[in-house]
Amino acid sequence: MGEGVLYVVATPIGNMDDMTPRAVSVLGEVDLIAAEDTRHTKKLLSHFGIKTPVTSYFEHNEIQKAEELLRKLKDGKSIALVTDAGTPGISDPGFRLVTLASEGGIKVSPIPGASALAAALSVSGLPTDSFTFKGFLPASSEKRRNALRPLKDIETTYIFYESARRIVETLEDMLETLGNVDAVICRELTKVYEEVIRGSVGELLKGLRDRELKGEVTLIVRTAAPPEAGEIDVKASLERFFKAGLSLKDAVKAATDETGAKKGDVYKIALTMKGDG
What CATH number should be reported for the domain holding residue 48? Predict the structure, then answer.
């Protein structure tokens, strides 16, 4: 008897219509489905008329259960790995079973589909030339700030999963550690109350003071590289001339002469400073 196949199957993050025909087919054909929450998965299977047996595979039983599933795979059984919603292995223990299977010579095959990470990033409107998924931040404010501080001054887009009840505290910690950077909150994606909120961290905080968010939240922020030394000098120079009462034109000329920077660059920085004011 040949060895089985481990299928990593993406399931809907909200809207059932996002389930792919291939995912339905695979879940109906495998010998066993390993699920994060069997009750949740059985509702999904019932919706699509799938009768395949289901077993639990989650964080607290993964060590012993992974070995059991690996034995079944080596005995020729095919298994589908699913999470409660989205793509397995992203912020859940699924990757451990994938690692064991691949190290044991078992074929691992992806059945792609919905992913909250990719869905949120695609509608964020923030740059995607460079992005990093950070998963869930620590629950305590001190540990959360310690995790955020190393992210400052790196020009990239960060994606986080966060609890709706903790989103305000997280934004407060981000404002202190990362500054007033651009951010996007994606809530209940693909569901009835889907919402995408864009703005600076400060603007998002202001908007959330008087309301309570519910549902699943993906938070995306865009951090920036620190300014060049020359830019710091130009800003300091412009600030002095603005405080002295010079007009934009005269301040730009004076700062250009003082710093030796290009006039066009000085003008852009001056416009940004006036806009900030």
Answer: 3.40.1010.10
Which H helix or E strand runs over 221? strand 216-223
Clarify whether residues 16 and 102 are in a common domain: yes
Regarding whether 136 and 37 lie in a shared domain, the answer is: no
Residue after which a domain boundary falls, among 74, 98, 114? 114
C-alpha separations of 86 from 4, 14, 58, 196, 202 in Å: 23, 9, 15, 18, 30
In the chain, how many domains are there? 3
| C-beta separation of 220 from 255 below 8 A | no
Please report, in tens digits, the pLDDT of each residue of the chain (277 residues total): 468 999 999 999 999 999 999 999 999 999 999 999 999 999 999 999 999 999 999 888 888 899 999 999 999 999 999 999 999 988 877 888 999 999 999 999 999 999 999 999 999 999 999 999 999 999 999 999 999 999 998 999 999 999 999 999 999 999 999 988 999 999 999 999 999 999 999 999 999 988 889 888 999 999 987 766 666 688 888 988 888 788 899 889 888 888 888 888 899 899 988 875 4
